[in-house]
Amino acid sequence: MGMRVAVAGASGYAGGELLRLIAGHPHFELAVATGQSQAGSPLGAVHPHLVTYADHVLAPTDPAALAEADLVFLALPHGESAAVAAQLPAHTKVVDLGADHRLIDPGAWTRYYPGPHAGTWTYGLPELPGQRAKIAESTRVAATGCYAVATILALAPLIAAGIASPDDVVVVASSGTSGAGKSPKAHLLGSEVMGDLSPYKVGAHQHVPEIKQASGARTLSFTPVLAPMPRGILSTVTAKPQSAAVDVRQALLDAYAGEHFVRVLPEGRWPHTAATFGSNACHLQAAVDVDSGRLIVVSAIDNLGKGAAGQAVQCANLMLGLPESAGLSANGVAP
Ligand SMILES: NC(=O)C1=CN([C@@H]2O[C@H](COP(=O)(O)OP(=O)(O)OC[C@H]3O[C@@H](n4cnc5c(N)ncnc54)[C@H](OP(=O)(O)O)[C@@H]3O)[C@@H](O)[C@H]2O)C=CC1
Ligand SMILES: CC(=O)N[C@@H](CCC(=O)OP(=O)(O)O)C(=O)O
């Protein structure tokens, strides 16, 4: 007997990737898929790549219909998921891909997001120490932000091991355009994005408090860059060492030994976003800067995979008592 899952926001990019993963999941059955402006449309018209659900019609986002599922994925714009979640029965399992329930500090929420803070759910990053068990026993899980997961996986083990200073962490990260969602935006016009790299939200990105909360960083400068590709995040994290001789790569290997989706690459090979496309993988590599002595970790993910839908399915598997990697792959699509 399969688990019935629902996707709210199924017409968006993250929702579409959830549907793709659900279609290939050995234990999931799609109960409801909802949209807002596209409610009433068949999925074949919205996501032509998803032939499994071509005739499935998008429903409006009605909590009563979502509540019929064993687990609900919320892939709604920031600020919209809290109201929907509040109308779902307490026993209904929910994974929110939005930011509404990620932050513990209401002050941090108010600095970066509009509207009131909705409260805090279990943070959905299974590879953090102790987090896998917490996710498995939770009915409400807040999946990670896309830049946040790439950066936290690179940084958290170094701070936890006392290798990197939690102060003066510097992150520059590039994202593909699907990170900005599907609704039309002037800065995402194809003719302007192609052939261009552009920084945005400089010094004021909303993932800063999330990265600090989950990695233990105290002061962090984060600069996001929009890259002319549909998917992928490459995060370059640099931090001050806490001691004279440190083996950063070994610290990452120790932290992620036995992890199926996080891979520290062989020495001399650096992460490429293209190698993670379509997968739930995170690729890492580390070095020490010969001039400044700063520790450098580079991390690559697919923002719609480990950065969104893949991570959400990994959490859902844990919450439903299924094998953690069911329906997910560490292998990407290339070229
Ligand atoms: N894109 C990414 O890489 C990542 C996204 N996320 C998070 O996932 C969530 C969805 O993002 P993404 O898929 O990119 O966004 P999209 O803009 O592509 O999709 C948004 C979805 O929400 C629906 N929607 C829009 N407005 C409302 C509303 N007022 N009430 C209910 N539903 C509404 C849209 O329906 P319709 O199209 O029918 O109007 C669509 O299905 C966001 O919270 C985002 O932060 C998290 C990690 C990474
Ligand atoms: C390219 C681009 O615009 N990316 C978005 C990612 C935000 C997003 O969707 O973030 P969550 O992961 O928090 O849900 C941004 O930088 O705001």
TrEMBL record:
A GO molecular function term, named singly, is: NAD binding
SMART domains from the entry? Semialdhyde_dh (SM00859)
Q: Key word Amino-acid biosynthesis present in the record?
A: yes
Cellular localisation: Cytoplasm
Question: What residue stretches are annotated with the Semialdehyde dehydrogenase NAD-binding domain?
Answer: 4-136
**Secretion signal span:** none
- Enumerate the UniProt keywords alphabetically: Amino-acid biosynthesis, Arginine biosynthesis, Cytoplasm, NADP, Oxidoreductase
The protein's predominant localisation is cytoplasm
A Gene Ontology biological process noted in the UniProt record is: L-arginine biosynthetic process
InterPro entries (alphabetical): AGPR, AGPR_dimerisation_dom, AGPR_type-1, NAD(P)-bd_dom_sf, Semialdehyde_DH_NAD-bd
Note the Pfam families from the entry. Answer: Semialdhyde_dh (PF01118), Semialdhyde_dhC_1 (PF22698)
Q: Which reaction does it catalyse?
A: N-acetyl-L-glutamate 5-semialdehyde + phosphate + NADP(+) = N-acetyl-L-glutamyl 5-phosphate + NADPH + H(+)
- Active site at which residues? 146
Q: Which NCBIfam families match?
A: argC (TIGR01850)
Q: Name the protein family.
A: Belongs to the NAGSA dehydrogenase family. Type 1 subfamily.
What is the documented function of this protein? Answer: Catalyzes the NADPH-dependent reduction of N-acetyl-5-glutamyl phosphate to yield N-acetyl-L-glutamate 5-semialdehyde.
Protein name per UniProt: N-acetyl-gamma-glutamyl-phosphate reductase
* Species the sequence originates in: Planosporangium flavigriseum
What gene is behind this protein?
A: argC
